[in-house]
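Batch job 17 of 40 flagged for manual review because the log was empty.
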Amino acid sequence: MVKHLVFWRLKEHALGASKAENILRFKAEVEKLKNVVPGVRSLELGVDIEGSPAAWDMALYSEFDSQEALDAYQAHPEHLKVRDLFVEATSERAVVDYEV
């Protein structure tokens, strides 16, 4: 199994919306991917509740059957659509992938 973690800091305004509006939009869009892309065991997007300057705005926690399943998820057209939205609104991003 492979775990895939992604963290984002968003711009205050992007895509004609505020950071708070974009967070809600992205959360909804990302969570739809769980039922669309094969090989996804678990997928959730959490939103920071502390507001600390050291915190990231959002965190994605996901699990995949294998590295091949993660690769297929990353190349899936629905994932690419959501990713393209994030690129425009993201100021920083960090990723960690590891096998269990």
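Reviewer: the log was empty due to a logging misconfiguration, but the result itself is present. The domain at 2-99 is CATH 3.30.70.100 (Alpha-Beta Plaits). Unflagging and moving on to job 18.
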